[in-house]
Design brief:
By secondary structure, this protein is mainly α. It contains 4 helices and no strands. The protein has helices at 29-48, 56-65, 68-83, 87-93. Helix 1 (29-48) runs antiparallel to helix 3 (68-83). The longest helix has 20 residues, at 29-48.
Amino acid sequence: MSSSNNPLIQSSDLPYGAPMYARIKPEHFEPAVLWAIEEGKKNLEAIRNNPDEPTFENTIAAFAFAPEEIIRVHKIIGVFTSVRNTKEVQKENDK
């Protein structure tokens, strides 16, 4: 499954960027989590490889936001599994 077909990865066009819960399926969970982990790793690498003099903004603040996609995906999955707690959802969530 490509990331372009995964509503957990796609940018939402809903007001305030609200998650597209109606389009999310349990099989979207694992690819979205793996994608989010890779995004976090890229963010950390960008901090590590930044040639500029370390500052609060380019080091500490950047580090605080490095896992933002992991946190976002985790929150959406958490709400989804709280509302739609089926055996299929539990199976995907247990991976």
